[in-house]
Amino acid sequence: MSLAFALLAALVVQLALQSVHVWWVLAACQPLLLVVVASSRRLAPVSVGWLGLGLGLASDAIADRIIGPGGIAGAVAGLVVAVTVRRFELEGPLFWIVGSLLAATCSELTLTLLVATLGATPDHRWLGSLAVLATTGTAGLAVAAAARVLRWWRSPERQRRRVLKHL
Fold it and tell me: Quick one: which of 1, 15, 45, 158 has the fewest CB in 10 Å?
């Protein structure tokens, strides 16, 4: 249920960033990659790759790019993130920060290589790729901070302190 909610929220944010006139650095954020990172805990690496494929194709359609390279880039990013998370047993804020940076890096490298092999001109250069890495990494950091606050809010120690304070 929470993965479906994250998917819908990321899709709305992605649409908003692409449709509204925002500063180009902020528009470079790829929130759909954060859904791929979030799914790497619950799904098998191959399933995360398939989810990355679907979300990459959706990202291509939203950005009015050639349909296909973004899907392949999302699949590669999903597979690499899922294998890395399982291999190094990433948890907590490190999971979100490393996962989002790794997903953005793999996606951008794969997308650049695919577009170069097709002989097409990429929609952004190295500065755009750095903007994607920075904004997606920052979004991962924001999710890690929100998860930390939510864990603190729901913690049993906090609940006990509140009850003891009222006694």
Answer: 1
Give the pLDDT score at 18: 80
**Could you read off the pLDDT of 44-80 as tens digits, one per residue?**
999 999 999 999 999 988 888 888 899 999 999 999 9
Number of domains in the chain: 1
Instruction: Give CA–CA dist 167/62, Å, rounded.
Output: 55
90: left (phi over 0), alpha (psi -120 to 50) or beta: beta
Task: Report the SS3 class of residue 53.
Answer: helix
* Structural domain boundaries, residue 119: 2-166
* Residue 142 φ/ψ region, left for φ over 0, alpha for ψ in the -120 to 50 degree band, beta for the rest: alpha
Amino acid identity for residue 35 in this structure? V
CA dihedral 141, 14, 87, 69 (to 10 degrees): -140
Residue pair 110/73 in contact (Cβ under 8 Å)? The answer is yes
Q: CA 14, CA 90: separation in Å to the nearest integer?
A: 26
| CA-based R_g, the chain, Å | 17
**Distance of alpha carbon 33 from alpha carbon 9, whole angstroms:** 12
Amino acid residing at 150: L
pLDDT band at 1 (very low <50, low <70, confident <90, very high): low
Q: What is the pLDDT of residues 86-118, one digit of tens each?
A: 999 999 899 999 999 999 999 999 999 988 898
